[in-house]
């Protein structure tokens, strides 16, 4: 049973009203010199890519794949163990916290202790992914049929029950979701290159800085091919070989100075007043100044950008889903639409925002466009697949009437569920885009790290995590209020 339409309409109009109000405070100025000329040069680089540096491009792709496999593999293993304990509140809280912190924030934390060592990139991917895996694995295991466990002998051990009655049922879903997270891991692996790890993002940033758009085009095309052909080269029989070989392809990096590691976790991240022995009398003014001067402006801009990106994402998703819906396109058109959506959703928000910032200059516009394109393509793809399950009557109207009166109303509930599910993820990405110069929480985190004020950076990262958790709670309550019982496709995570 679903809520009356008026409730859905009220929530939808409320989100739109908030986003329109945010427009008043947002900065959408295009300040770059001749932005359309630069966009044309980028397009020319995409259609005329330079693959001459084969060794350099091959190494970038190899490092990207290696970090993805190792990070996702460790995250999946840890996530499965946490999923088995997910009924405990402390485990759920811990997983919510670690997944609320973006991979780039984790990378920035570990860079200060481990430096440019492969362990920095691996942990930056593995830790948040462990929290995500734990949540989704637990949901998958909870949805298994309890009957097989009941018919086992009474003395059957807990491990045997788990293996033969629950994991055996859930195995296809666990494998399917893990394969999707590997695709996400490739995107995360590329992105951590922007903070110095030797993956695709590192070389992409360098090529952009030098204006080598042909090299940028080659890197982007190789990345899209890598994502698009994932199912062809990641075969179950080859997976153990990949997992064994990946750690040896990470490179060596700079040696770890363990004294720096110890100093960072025992001294550098401790608030300055506590290091000086000032106690609460010094800590409260210190925190108050940090909160007013940096946290509050960062929270304000993060919320502004998130709400605008959320609504634009929704509009774009509802406009894009017909591209792959059999009710609006034929086989050829559906294939072309699928390719378009794959390219859009395969491009990480951070990477797309970086490109647009180079072309349009620093403002909220590149961030909103990047977030909306990526997340709108993901939701549009899932809603389009959902629409293919709808059977229309033979005399159903065509064109715009079919969209407005037959298909859109039937997929709107699942669409809202997916949009609310992505809300927390959009918030995570919004915060991290501050590293690119937009004044969200990530901007102040990056500034604190550049000033070697790691204690301030850690507090701001904790605030970011709490903000993400709050948005997740709000989104779940809205889904409950609207009774959106649609089972979220696991790949929407």
Please supply descriptive tags for the structure shown above:
493 residues, mainly alpha, MetI-like fold, 2 domains, 75% helix, globular, disordered C terminus, Phosphonate transport system permease protein, transmembrane, MetI-like_sf, transport
Q: Short summary of the structure?
A:
This is Phosphonate transport system permease protein. By secondary structure, the protein is mostly helical.
Beta-strand content:
under 5%
Classified by CATH, the class of the largest domain is Mainly Alpha
Classification by helices and strands: mainly alpha
With helices defined by DSSP (H or I, 4 residues minimum), what is the helix count? Answer: 21
What does the main sheet amount to?
A: none
Termini separation (Å)? Answer: 25 Å
Estimate percent helicity: over 70%
- Please, what is the average pLDDT? 87
Shape: globular
Order of helices and strands: HHHHHHHHHHHHHHHHHHHHH
- CATH third-level topology of the largest domain: MetI-like fold
Compute the number of structural domains: 2
Per DSSP E runs of 2 or more residues, the count of β-strands stands at: 0
InterPro entries: MetI-like_sf
Membrane topology: Multi-pass membrane protein
Subcellular location: Cell membrane
Keywords: Cell membrane, Membrane, Transmembrane, Transmembrane helix, Transport
